[in-house]
């Protein structure tokens, strides 16, 4: 029986495992390795960060979810990929050095939060990207009694896209931040939280970005809408701010600029997963992201696929692109294994919903201008808030098997 090994249990890994099993059934043995026993619905970790939900509300138990679909689950930390011998090394709580062989591999471990690039992070940094970070942010917001808040993102250590994969050039480009959607969403959530707490009038908020302005992956017209909204709320805006250090009452850029911040809420720098350092080097580009063709196959090792954030192609790093790449990869695999399957065409599109749950509204973004398209939609409505809630419920109800997600876009 053909052995498919999936590394990672987030959007891309789950979509790949479920899709492969759905398309190939008993003809394929699917195993997924993840370093936590659950998969968190990360888009709603920001809700945890403002205390309107618990992280456990958005955690899928992988062992029960995967085994129910006939997929094997290993709780372990991947330590390296040897693509030349078709082996993956990993460790568990009981062993330091296990190895597992595969016929086909899906590398879906995502990127790494490079908090070590920011001096003072452990003492003063705050974020909501992961469950534990979100819980800690809420604890700090609960104690906040006014002052200065800075909200922004760290750099994306992307490399130079060298070598570039075999796909249309407009699909991937250099960007300063891996994804500023969470920054935008937090800028909507924090003011009503502070208003409810009674300290908004005692608080000054600054939005910053390492880019020439925020959200440079969408159109100039849409960015202007966002900046006008910030101006109307009295926010300061600081661009080209590449954060280097956090102190107890300020953040400092690599060129010495300072922003007052009693609380710094940051999307940490993104960089390649640590596993890359211990893996076959010619799988990756100079930034540590996998080089593939348009069906997500490694150029040098065609039995290896890369889906989601680990792929050079996916820019910015979005859940919508992760599920799309995983689905395409497994459609390609099905055809290779003798099951005629229509392969979707990759259609990069920046789709997100920035929720404002305390005011029961949300702003949806649907934009293709980064990829040379002409679609640029920014829309605020209560319906978008409902869509965000329903999407979270759908993820949990299906245990992350979002077969209909491509029909549930926000545009």
From TrEMBL:
Pfam families: Pyr_redox_2. InterPro entries: FAD/NAD-bd_sf (IPR036188), FAD/NAD-binding_dom (IPR023753), SQRD (IPR052541). Coiled coil: none annotated. Residues 3-125, 203-320 form the FAD/NAD(P)-binding domain. It comes from the Archaea. One of its GO terms (molecular function) is oxidoreductase activity. This is Sulfide:quinone oxidoreductase. The lineage of its organism: Archaea, Candidatus Micrarchaeota, Candidatus Mancarchaeum.
